[in-house]
Structures are given as C-alpha cells and as structure tokens.
Amino acid sequence: MEKANQLESLFFLDHNSRIWLTYRHSFEPIVSSDYTSDMGWGCMLRSGQMLLANALVYHFLGRDWRINNKEKYEFYKGLIGWFMDFPEKPFSIHKIATLGQKYDKAIGEWFGPMIISQVLKNAVEQSSECNNCIGVCVSIDQSIYKDEVIKITNNWNKALILLLPLRLGIKNLNPLYHEGLKACFQFPQCIGIAGGKPKSSLYLIGNDDNDIIYLDPHIIKPALERKDEYNDEDFLSYRCPTVQTVNITSLDPSLAVGFYFSDEGDFGDFCKQYDNV
User: Fold this and answer.
1) What positions carry a catalytic annotation?
2) What are the sequence ranges of the domains in the chain?
3) Distance from the CA of 243 to the CA of which of 27, 101, 145, 193 falls in 20 to 30 A?
4) Which residues on neighbouring strands pair with residue 136, listed in sequence order?
5) What is the pLDDT of residues 216-246, one digit of tens each?
C-alpha cells in the first residue's frame, strides 16, 4: 500500500511538472489579422507548443526534472516565457500561427499533424535560444533516415527532436496500431503526441492500459499582461491540476508522435527498440 501511494505521488508530481498551454484571450492581435484569441482554432497549435515545451524541459532541465526542484525553477519560468502570447516570443501563438502561412494556412485556420510538425521545425530553426543546440527532424514518410539526422544535428553536435506525423487508420484509429501507440509512451525519449479527437487536438502524455492521459488545450484563459517581472503565481496557469484520460478507441487516426534525443547514443538505443514496435 505504501509503495502504491508513493508511485501515485510520483505520477502526480510528474503530471504537474508538464507545461500546459491552452486557449488564451485578450492577447495582442496576430499580425495581418484581428485575432486576439485562438479559441476554436488553436488546439493543434497549442498541442504542438506543449510537445515542444516539454522537449525543451528535457533538454535544458533534464528528463527527471520536477516542479519541486527550486534549483532550476527560474530557468523553468524563463522557458515558459518563450511560449507566452506576445508577438516577439520565439514560440508564441503569434509565431506559430504566422509560420503556418508558409504552408497556406491562414491565421485562424486549424493545423493538421504534418503542418504543426513543419512549423515547429521552422520555429526552432529561427530561434536564437535553441537553434544552436537543438535540431528538429520531421519524418515525411514515417521513416527515419540516419543520414538526415546526422545532417540536422551537425554530426551530433546538437540534440534532436524527432517528429513523426502519422495516419493510423481512415476514420478511426485502426485497432492494429493500439499496442504500438501505447508502446511509444514507454520510450524514455518520448515527449508525447499531438493528436486526439477529430478536429479537437489534445496533448497525449502517457497511458493507463487503454486510457490515454492527456493535457487539454481547450480551456480558455486570459493572456498574461506585459510585466517587467512575473511572480510564481503567474505561472500556475501553466500547470494542469487534474488528470484526464480518453479511451484509445476514441482517438483520431491523424497524430504527430514526438521524441527527444540528447546525443547519438540516446538515438541509437531508441532505434534498437523502435524496430521492435
């Protein structure tokens, strides 16, 4: 019983340490549009932000970092700052939505898994905070090409975020892929999945058998105002207080699976296991 309680406490600490990004309202208008909220269209953009944000936690703070680690808490707050809803932030809703125009997505238009993957890659490439230390590889045909990985990481002088946009069925997630999808969460390199229900993206972070644990971007909150300095209370809205699940049979077949690799050895370990999934 004591061990079960301990495991439960560790789970909730892990869950509470994930960066939670949701719909916001009353932010500055996105350039070339009148949008001051992403409610109704930004769920995949927010899911993609969460995928990237938690990859950056792995990179800068470590896979085992938790919210109660006050030693690195200031950096954690700074990292969240990169995603705040201001036009100049490298991974803001403004930046993500604007980059979508390169792929013929108008501001206010919903993204699919392939588009959000490409946009996240572009955002990291344009980011002075991350481009010198992290490369992003987007698999176009569900394959992983090691020569491309070496090129993107500059012969492993950078860490790697790998994004796999997948379609695992026609209208619904094909049951043949259920076990493989659940197996993804068991990889220590997994940073989650941007997917969910049809036209209603979620950030999937784990599973309890067929119940998939997720963070929901469909909660509308006011955007933070500009300040010279933010206090700890300002960051509470980036932590999810409740655990939610969706049955795997309800998932949409279109999704983007994400992985983070710190170095070549980490990637090699993953490839050995991935071939068996």
Assistant:
1) 43, 216, 218
2) 2-274
3) 27
4) 161
5) 999 999 999 999 999 999 999 999 999 999 9
